[in-house]
Specification:
Strand order of the largest sheet of chain A: 6-7-8-3-9-10
Largest interface: A-B, 30 and 23 residues
Largest sheet of chain B: none
CATH topology of the largest domain in chain A: Rossmann fold
Structural class of chain B: mainly alpha
Shape of chain A: globular
Distance between the termini of chain B: 27 Å
CATH superfamily of the largest domain in chain A: P-loop containing nucleotide triphosphate hydrolases
Strand content of chain A: 25-35%
Helix content of chain B: over 70%
Radius of gyration of chain A: 24 Å
Distance between the termini of chain A: 29 Å
CATH architecture of the largest domain in chain A: 3-Layer(aba) Sandwich
Bound molecules: adenosine-5'-triphosphate, magnesium ion
Radius of gyration of chain B: 23 Å
Oligomer: heterodimer
CATH architecture of chain B: Orthogonal Bundle
Number of helices of chain B: 11
Strand content of chain B: under 5%
CATH class of chain B: Mainly Alpha
CATH class of the largest domain in chain A: Alpha Beta
């Protein structure tokens, strides 16, 4: 994960003295009597790569459009670089947006599309030309400069849109699902390109995405949204390893969720989940009380599978293999427990020769360490 | 290419005959040497010569062109503005009323439009002449322009204009540099439509024309009432020729544009 190495060095959100670039304070947006954004408060710091994640319709685009100035908040204050933005029209903001649809001007060439914003600033011809050439080089589109947007491929269009929004060197760049239309390989390349650009230009990025893997790869912090509210804002690593709710755990990555009730609470938490079975041990989430209904969350890759009962681990359950999936780099096993739940576990395929250890209907043991799982309030 | 059946050939022939035989007869008789319109007296181009010496006719033609040019230009500006506000500026208070009102003149009987304009001009004491015809034609052709332009604007991607604003263009620059060039074909066809509407309008022009200015349709209509002269045939033939050339050029130009675009797209893909 990209942010993993960065985390020690770059974490302005932990620094009380750091001045945020964007302050979003109690911002709401209502369309008629529908609340699209519900009292969101959030600080985004200079040079962050901030990802907004959430299911369709949760208000990601609406939040971006308020930052860009296309929508006015129904309540609350947005300030960018210390300036209250409520009355500032989009064309007066040092913010550029890369639209999900790219919104390239169809009647202008690639070159003129990129030059559009620079010309609006009244730069002289030579400066415009120099900057456009620089941008074309950055996105490697030099030989397509004279083409119209309909004469280039989807991926090239996306890069033109990126170049156009970067050309003015904005303080803040908003990317609304910038890579949605690309195939997986090109998407990964572009993700790294984006991170590279971000490092070179020092621009602050806010990126909206449906693809959580993308968010994990590029972001310094991830915000998980649901129905107009922020559920958790954290680094990708924390979001993945310490989700603050079942919602986040379930939304980010694969997770096994086992319902039960809290039977013991101390440094760790124990969850009674089935009659006559030892409780499952894990780390306690926030606002947990003894006796409360809770959910045990465990990631599939943290579960080991074995034929014999493992003696060294407290968390162990027995079940029958329901399904085996081969995904190239790893295999997944769906194991049905007699108590009901189906547990998914992932095992890396290290050796090229397949070890046919387990097959359908085999009785197997699943086990994990005391710190691998989380007990989350429901 | 599919082969035409006999039935299709017959219906095609009948249809075209219905459309074009009257005009064909008119064209043939414009080369008639005889004074009598219905009697063929041999081939001659003398009526074309007569026409060129008929100053009242030339004046009327000139007035018609002027009126058509100015009214269609004015109507295009106003109609485009109206369409833009109605389609692009979202829902504002009274929008439905406005859009209903802008299209009302389309279905209003011309006699009523003409009469009301006449009353207005008299009321404000405006002398009837070229100016009043221009204003009258602008009024009724503007809603045609507005219809043509708004049908294009409906399919226009909002985010293009937002992108322009986002890149620092003022709302007016966004319109001038992005929206207008993209909807230009619709604006041009709106202008052409307004121009032709103005060229052949008789009813509204008769209400709003004064003794100082007469348009060609009025002139033709009034002279026909005194008896059809072969001169009118000659004039009509010229008009037909102009229209034919115009239509052909327009279709050739647009066809070229389409093929060029297709070729460019093929190269790109
Ligand atoms: N102009 C509008 N009028 C009324 N409702 C709107 C408007 N714009 C957005 N909404 C509503 O606000 C909610 C949030 O929309 P938004 O576009 O921000 O979602 P999103 O998170 O970007 O979703 P997606 O991932 O599908 O793009 C949706 O329920 C949407 O229907
Ligand atoms: Mg969206």
């Amino acid at each position: 994960m990209a942010a993993a190495g960065k985390e020690n060095v770059f974490a302005p959100w932990k620094d009380d003295a750091a001045v945020p670039l964007i302050r979003i304070d109690q911002v709401s947006k209502r369309f008629g009597d529908f609340t699209a954004i519900d009292k969101i408060s959030l600080n985004i710091y200079p040079q962050e790569f901030f990802a907004l994640l959430g299911p369709s319709g949760c208000g990601k685009t609406t939040l971006m459009r308020m930052l860009a100035g296309f929508e006015k908040p129904s309540g609350g204050v947005i300030s960018i670089d210390g300036q209250d933005m409520v009355t500032v029209p989009p064309n007066k903001r040092a913010v550029n947006m890369m639209f999900q649809s790219y919104a390239l001007f169809p009647h202008l060439s690639v070159w003129d599309n990129i030059a559009f914003g620079l010309r609006r600033d009244g730069l002289d011809k030579d400066r415009v030309a120099a900057r456009v050439e620089e941008m074309l080089k950055l996105v490697q589109l030099g030989q397509f400069a004279r083409r119209k947007p309909h004469q280039i491929s989807g991926g090239q269009r996306q890069r033109v849109a990126l170049a156009r929004s970067l050309a003015k060197a904005p303080k803040l760049l908003l990317l609304d699902e910038p890579l949605g239309a690309l195939d997986k390989k090109l998407r990964q390349e572009t993700q790294f390109e984006l991170m590279d650009i971000q490092e070179k230009t020092g621009t602050t990025f806010v990126i909206v995405t449906h693809d959580q893997e993308e968010a994990m790869t590029v972001a310094s912090r991830v915000a998980v949204m649901d129905q107009g509210k922020l559920i958790q804002v954290e680094t990708p690593q924390v979001i993945y390893e310490q989700p603050n709710s079942v919602y986040v755990a379930d939304f980010i990555g694969d997770v096994n969720l086992i319902p039960g009730s809290v039977s013991e609470l101390g440094g760790g938490a124990a969850l009674a989940w089935a009659e006559g079975k030892p409780p499952l041990l894990g780390q306690p989430g926030a606002s947990l009380a003894k006796g409360q209904n809770a959910t045990f969350a465990i990631r599939p890759e943290k579960i080991a599978i074995s034929a014999e009962e493992p003696q060294d681990r407290n968390n162990r359950v027995q079940g029958k293999i329901l399904e085996i999936g081969y995904l190239g780099n790893l295999s997944t096993y769906h194991v049905e427990l007699p108590e009901g739940p189906v547990i998914k576990c992932e095992v890396g395929n290290r050796s090229r020769v397949e070890r046919r250890d387990f097959t359908w209907e085999d009785e197997v043991w699943l086990s994990w360490s005391d710190t691998a799982g989380l007990v989350l309030a429901r | 290419m599919t082969r035409l059946t006999t039935f299709n050939i017959v219906s095609l022939t009948l249809g075209f005959a219905f459309l074009y035989i009257p005009m064909l007869i008119l064209v043939i008789y414009s080369f008639n040497a005889s004074q009598l319109v219905t009697v063929w007296g041999g081939f001659s181009t003398k009526w074309y010569g007569e026409l060129l010496r008929n100053e009242a006719m030339i004046d009327a033609a000139w007035v018609t062109m002027k009126v058509a040019f100015f009214s269609s230009t004015l109507a295009t500006v106003l109609g485009t503005m109206a369409a833009y506000v109605l389609v692009r500026r979202g829902r504002f208070y009274g929008r439905t009323l406005f859009s209903g009102m802008i299209y009302a003149p389309l279905v209003m009987p011309e006699v009523i439009t003409g009469l009301s304009l006449l009353l207005l001009f008299i009321a404000i004491g405006l002398d009837r002449g070229v100016l009043t015809i221009v204003l009258a034609h602008t009024t009724f052709s503007m809603c045609y322009v507005s219809v043509v332009v708004s049908s294009r604007l409906v399919s226009f991607d909002d985010s293009l204009e937002e992108a322009a604003l986002d890149l620092g263009a003022s709302p007016f620059e966004a319109f001038r540099l992005v929206t207008l060039p993209i909807i230009a074909p619709a604006v041009i066809s709106g202008w052409l439509l307004a121009f032709t509407l103005s060229l052949d309008d008789l009813v509204i022009a008769s209400f709003t024309a004064g003794p100082s200015a007469t348009t060609l349709p009025i002139k033709i209509f009034s002279s026909v009432r005194l008896g059809v002269s072969p001169e009118i045939n000659a004039l009509s033939t010229i008009i037909i020729a102009i229209v034919t050339v115009g239509v052909l050029t327009a279709s050739i130009v647009s066809k070229r544009q389409i093929t060029r675009r297709l070729r460019e797209e093929a190269q790109a893909g």
